[in-house]
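Reviewers of the previous submission asked for a worked example of the structure-prediction workflow described in the proposal, so we include one complete record here. The input consisted solely of the amino acid sequence. No template or homolog information was supplied to the procedure at any stage.
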Amino acid sequence: MLHERVRKCFIATNIVETSVTTDGIRFIIDSEKVKEMVYDGKYKLQRLRQFNISRAGRRGPGVCYRLYSEHDYLNFQEYSTPGIHVVPLD
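From that input alone, the workflow returned the following structure tokens.
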């Protein structure tokens, strides 16, 4: 069948790692970049800050190409900080 030869390419933010499950993905290119909401106490406002961290999941057999070193990978935090700990509860 023709559709079996079609490759899908998704370009997505880290939200895909926790909220969307897509079957048939065999290759992941992981840039380790993530944007998270943080509270800036100096200016008393919330803002998005880019972090270097990766939590790419895998659902089946495939290949993950990481755009960072194994040393960096082994030093990543296992889990991200929950939002309740980084933004005010106003």
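Residues 70-74 form the longest helix (5 residues). We consider this example representative of the routine output the project will generate in years two and three.
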